[in-house]
Amino acid sequence: MRTIVITGGTDGMGAALARHFLSAGDRVAVIGRSRAKFDALLAAVGDPSAVERAEFVAADLSLMADSRRVVAQLTARFEQVNALVLAASYIRRHRHVTAEGHEASWALFFLSKHLLVTGLAEPLRASGRPVIANTSVPGAKAEALDFDDPELTQGFTFGKSNAQQRRANELLGILATRDIPDLSYVTWGPAGLVRSSFAGEVGAGMKIAATILGPLIGQQPDDAVRPLIDLIDNPTPGRAAYRGHKPVPLVVGLHDEQDATRLGEVAEAAEDET
């Protein structure tokens, strides 16, 4: 029986993945903020055995203390983790500082992922053919990351914040594949619009997409994640990037290895502060 860990596993594509893997007979640890949504997810699976194979871990992953607690709980519970799916999302169009003093989007979309990837390295290694599936859409420019101000204390915009997170998560793949032999690290985004609630501060464009275009042309989350399920079921060691089923080129910068090392140091320094 495989063990699948899914952040953001109570909503949207994360919930679709959780339902699929529970229906397939896997053990699934769902990390989210709503126990009620987790209970609804289990009810939707409709398999009494899923209750024994499912575990809910309540956490706000924009908080480093919660991310550390999640790592501690999962490493105590599971000797092996076959797949780690990083799908937690909460959109913020404006700069917001958490109670721990970090910019919330940077904390949720990168720092928590760094903590989970590094903290779960041992159980991932133990599984033999581990997969990390990161739903940070690939393709940000190599120069998108400001190492001197990653939390954007100056000149914050939603676009700049989003690009930084995406580039950081591609570099995280370099760190992860250095540390975990035979790891398949995939940055993945859906091929098109997905019917989603877009949790968070949603701008006018996203509201239109969610309320008008989504029901007309958007994919159901269960359909949107099928390509990602295939990648998790048939892992290929190394780094890769996909939009839906389609592989896309990895972004290559002039100093990727050095940038990845520097990013790891930045992340560890930020995590040590809280």
UniProtKB/TrEMBL annotation:
Molecular function terms from GO: oxidoreductase activity
The keyword Cell membrane is assigned to this record: no
Coiled coil: none
Positions of transmembrane segments: none
Keywords, in A-Z order: Oxidoreductase
Top-level division of the source organism's lineage: Bacteria
InterPro entries named among the record's database cross-references: NAD(P)-bd_dom_sf, SDR_fam, Sec_Metab_Biosynth_Oxidored
Protein name per the record: Short chain dehydrogenase
The organism's taxonomic lineage, starting at the top: Bacteria, Bacillati, Actinomycetota, Actinomycetes, Streptosporangiales
